[in-house]
Amino acid sequence: MRAAVYKSKQNLVVEEIPTPEPQSDEVQIKISHSAICGTDVHVYLYDIAPPDTVLGHEFAGEISKVGSDVTRFKVGDRVIGLGGTPPPGKESPLRRQDQYNYRLEGITNTRTRGYAEYTVAKEWEPLRLPDQVSNLEGALAEPCAIVTRAVRLSNQKLGDTVAVLGAGPIGLLCLQAAKAAGATKVIVSEPSEARRSVALELGADAVVDPTSQDPVKAIIELTDGAGPHVVYECAAAKPTLHDALDMVRRKGNVMLVALAWEDVPLLPVDWAGKEIQLNTTFASEPYDFKVAVDLIASKKFVLEPLLSDTDTIELKDIQEAFESLIKPSNQIQMVIKF
Asked: Which of 329, 224, 296 is nearest to 206 (CA)?
């Protein structure tokens, strides 16, 4: 089968590798769509995967083979590759280690994943897609689960005003999750005009261009001088974490969603007197996936603007796609179609 194999820093090579066969407790999945995640872009940029790893964790497809002991799935079932509940002791390092550090530990699961024509998974790992959710939409279930978890952990309450910093895929999904959770006003700060337009299309009440406006002053003014109750930091640019802490209202909450991989400047004296909370989130858990898939099925997550035809690529173009994604762009989401 064809797969995009990570060879070294910023080097993906599409080549033929053996097709994985399921063991007795596994299923084989024929992948139809695999979305390119910002986490994989960081892996590519900062060289944190072993050579010969096949990356990709945002994918959907059909069960093509089942092991002899498998009872949950049959051939032809449409699934996403994640979202199942792990048995005790099979949780990811993130959920079982007290001092988990993704940057230092990197990729620990080197099994062939989503940037390939086929993959295998333990019977408990995939999540079945409902009829209302297409395979293409299913490829975005994982980032939807990420923002679902972020909003659930954010202390956002019904009627809150919210700011979202950054309107890439995560920011645009976070905007929708915040709305679904009862935010009365969502303001999005984003330098790209194209992404600001999509944010308005998806329900943002106002947008701010941080290249021509002071985002802190502008967002405070748009919240009647008080600042938002909750700020979701989805940009991971150098100034955005400090901006989030600076603009949030007294006793408000900042949720760190996107992760900077370089030092960012902070001046705590600017905002410590407001007695605010800084919360973090990383990845998602099975319940977040279930909620996310339900929100996609009910159209609370509107995915069409993130999935335009121009952003669908072939596997052979993956190296070029990653090269473009490590540079500033107006790109919203890229999906590999097999």
From this structure: 224
> What domains sit in the chain, N to C, each tagged with a CATH number?
2-140+307-337 (3.90.180.10), 145-280 (3.40.50.720)
Up-side HSE of residue 239: CA atoms within 13 Å toward CB?
11
What is the distance, to the nearest Å, from the Cα of residue 45 to the centroid of all Cα atoms in its chain?
17
Which pLDDT score is estimated for 307?
A: 79
Q: Beta-carbon neighbour count of residue 252 at 10 Å?
A: 24
CA distances from 110 to 12, 152, 194 (A): 15, 30, 36
User: How many angstroms separate the CA atoms of 294 and 301, rounded?
Assistant: 9
Please tell me the predicted confidence (pLDDT) of residue 109.
61
- Cite the active site residues: 39, 42
One-character DSSP codes across 202-228: TT-SEEE-TTTS-HHHHHHHHTTTS--
Classify residue 269 by burial, with Cβ atoms within 10 Å: 0-12, 13-18, 19+: exposed
pLDDT computed for residue 327 by the predictor: 79
Q: SS3 for 28?
A: strand
Q: Tokens representing 36?
A: 């390119």
User: Could you tell me the mean pLDDT of each successive run of 10 residues in the chain, 338 residues long?
Assistant: 94 96 97 92 88 93 98 97 90 82 72 92 96 95 97 97 96 97 98 94 97 98 98 96 98 95 92 96 93 96 82 91 82 87
Strand, helix or coil for residue 301: coil
Name the residue among 227, 232, 179 with its Cα closest to residue 203.
179
